[in-house]
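Continuing the series of single-chain predictions for the mutant panel. This is the parent chain; the variants come on the following pages.
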Amino acid sequence: MHRILLIDDDELLAPPLAAYLQRFDMQLENATRPSVGLARLRAESFDAAILDVMLPEMDGFELCRAIRKDSDVPIIMLTARGEVMDRIVGLELGADDYLPKPFEPRELAVRLQTILRRARSAPTQDAQQLAFDGLQIDLARRQVQRLGQPVELTGTEFELLVLLAREPQKVFDRDQILNRLRGHEADLHTRAVDILVSRLRRKLEPLDCIKTLRNAGYAFAGARV
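Parent structure:
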């Protein structure tokens, strides 16, 4: 059973949500204070985390930043009223997905299933690695090396890199990328793709292997070795 940590100060939210997610083989646990949730993520093993934006002690953005300092656990942000800026900030800080409040438990379950599936997906035996000039992508171990040095990527960043690198020079538009990463029809604002690409580019610097094609999308331009 997958362990999920909900960090939300609404004490009435966790019990019914936990009961619902059990149907999907998920064990939801709750921390009402960010400090407690952060300590638990560091001390225990969780498969995903759900962070509310509005929290005591520190907001969800600061908490996401703290988590990303030493963990690539998949993160879903709960954003008040679905504010676009909340979504953008959360993605920039390393969140894998977001869900506006109020939300349907079924939609949360689907999004959790998607990021969990991405996290545990294994490559086929005939394609364990992708090798380019200055960049090595180990699909089996989900590891990336840039100029011989390891690069820490979130689950979504890794999936984006693999999606582009599997088909160098192929142009993917924003909707295609969202649909492929999410696994169903995208309802994310297409600005989310720009943010994910920007995050990935920063981590791959000084390599310049992801190209923007104006009004078309993105393509991987790395040279195979």
